[in-house]
Amino acid sequence: MKPSFLFLLLIAFTAQAQTPSTGITIGHVDTLYSNILGETRKLWVYVPKQAEVGRYTLERFPVVYLLDGEDHFDYVRAILREMSEGSDLIPPMILVGIVNADRNRDFSPTYSTSAWYGDAPRRYRTTGGAENFTHFLKEELIPSIESRYPVAPYRMLIGHSLSGLYTIHALLHHTELFEAYLAIDPGLRWDNQWMIQQAKKVFTSKSFQDKKLYLTVANTYKMPMDSLLISQDTNRASEFIRANFHFASLLQSSTPQALNFQTRYHESDSHASVPLISIYEGLRFIFDYYHFPAQWGLYLDPDYQPDSALIAHFNHVSEKIHYLALPPESRVDRLASGFMTIDQPQKALACFRLNIRNYPTSAHAHERLGDFYAAMGDKAKAKEYYTKALSIKSLPDTRKKLDRLMAEK
């Protein structure tokens, strides 16, 4: 296999006051040569900032594999960051946007030259490569990502339109490859609804234990009729949406064994506009167990024990996500700071100690406990934890704090 090369992708948002060199880094570009596909594939990769700054203990993150990466990477990355760092609705996640080479080839499960409008475009002559693309994912791309990035054992696949068709293909025929599947207005009319016929067989013979599917359908017909009437329509123009309604109905009626799924019809959204809202809603559904709510009224309760509550909550998260998910160090640190702000030092102390239990090799966790004791006027304890922090890692600011305490009488 040829080597891969990693370099920064800079997306510049230029304003009048900016120089041409000013930019905002939103990810990396990675390339991987595929022996299976016989070509070099470009990847756009975003890693949560917890992995890039040395302040907190390096965490491991679930991975989102995003098809049609060049079309969706920017806003999906922004949604992931806001929903994790901003509101703690989902865990921080690595995003891998797979840039297309020949999407008609890679995402189509069968060879078919018939487009939805009846013509046979030249670009369809390479169709039918979904299985080969799956081999690329399974044998080359995923192992490469997992060997070079701090990944947790949880993978999600997101696809829209033709790549949504592939997402359903992967769910049915390579169920073990991902834990969650988000299919956005998929092209299920492909080859006379071939995938739906496959689903009828697979749904009765396979278990989808611990798998989640979120399926959205856009209004591609633009006629004033409800979903039932659309499903009964015979106009060629409604074939795309009819196939998606057919699949959604099949999900409801066949109840695939153990599959946790949700479908949503967005009557007011087009095929082009539906991905944005689908990503947000799909992530909310897939990680509906993750959020640890900030209930300040509860936090003020003198009997409330934040460390016990966090432990119980993330034990539940671990059961759902199927790996040990500890409360993120940065999140607990923010919570502790909040308790200090509202004059709840014992609760802050419980959070600082929880971080040290979970991340015993974190210099920052020990420094923060030293800060707590310094704020409480316990110089001996503050010196103890500053010293411990410095024994783990050389931190100039911590050294200054310790020297200042040592100089005091």
From TrEMBL:
Keywords: Hydrolase, Signal, TPR repeat
Domain of life: Bacteria
Family annotation (InterPro entries): AB_hydrolase_fold, Esterase-like, Siderophore_Hydrolase_D, TPR-like_helical_dom_sf, TPR_rpt
Signal peptide region: 1-17
Coiled coil regions in record: none
TPR-type repeats, residues: 363-396
A molecular-function term among this protein's GO annotations: hydrolase activity
Pfam family, one: Esterase
Assigned protein family: Belongs to the esterase D family.
Protein's name in the database: Alpha/beta hydrolase-fold protein
Organism of this sequence: Nibrella viscosa
